Amino acid sequence: MTRELNVLALIKGEERYVFVYDDESRDALINDIRDKAADPAVKINWFDAAVLTERVRTQLVSPQEEF
Description:
Blueprint: E1 6-12, E2 15-21, H1 26-38, H2 46-61
Antiparallel strand pairs: 1-2
């Protein structure tokens, strides 16, 4: 059985954030994104976190077509 992975990316200036996760780790990813937004050392802000977490939830409801 093949485990499917999801990829979510954010490009913010020179910074690149790439999150690779499976369906079981979706909630942990959302928590991690929120933690990053709360950390002043990370350039992800609360708006970025809101967009990213909404994208994670949207992928759960309507996954992209497979090629």
